[in-house]
Amino acid sequence: MKNLPTIVALGYNAFLGLFALDVFSEGLSIAEMMVGLVMHLVPNMVLLVVTILGYKKPLVGSLVFGGLVVVFTLFFRTYTDPIVWLLISGPLLVIAGLYGWSWRYGLKND
Q: Where are the domains of the chain?
């Protein structure tokens, strides 16, 4: 159970990465596709760093994922549609809660 938040975070990261694949259907040059792919994957890179941090320190992971809920909600404007919020921002709230639960009940990853 101690690895559950990390497993969920990695699954969410993989799901979010699927949205980066749309750069291949836009009829762009190879260079433009690579730039677009890197730009689309920046949130994934941030989430990966936060997941590693949360794995080592669950309290920090909980707080940072909680902050990311606010950032993703405002930056990606997921507040405009409840379904979009549930798909994009909602899992971050669940992950923050799982890391908080892991920290609160002393489930260490040592």
A: 4-104
